[in-house]
Each structure stands twice: as C-alpha cells, then as structure tokens.
Amino acid sequence: MEKHNKYTLLGFKALQRAAAKVAENARKNNLKIPIWKNGRIKYEIPEIITEQVSAAERQ
Q1: How far apart are CA 10 and CA 47, in angstroms?
Q2: pTM (2 decimals)?
Q3: pLDDT tens digits, residue range 26-40?
C-alpha cells in the first residue's frame, strides 16, 4: 500500500507542476485557458495563484 501512495503523490506533484507552467505561460502570452466553473467551461486568463498546500503535504 505504501508503494502505491508514493507513486500517487509523485503523479499529483507532477500534475501540479504542469498546471502551474500552463497558467504561467497563459499569463505571459495573454491567453485564455478552459476552467470548469458552475457546471460550465469558461475561458479565462488565469490570475496569479498563491501556493496552496495539499492535504498530503500538511502531514
């Protein structure tokens, strides 16, 4: 079980890094990215995101 948890955390962190790079690129180039809000997809230019700590990192 511990082995699966380790790979899950590695995958989660990789997805966070990828999302951060996409948002940064969109901000720099004034591009809109799709965001799911209120049951619909809206295209927005991402705002500056402050670091959020996931539940796994708090422990």
Answers
A1: 26
A2: 0.61
A3: 988 989 988 888 999
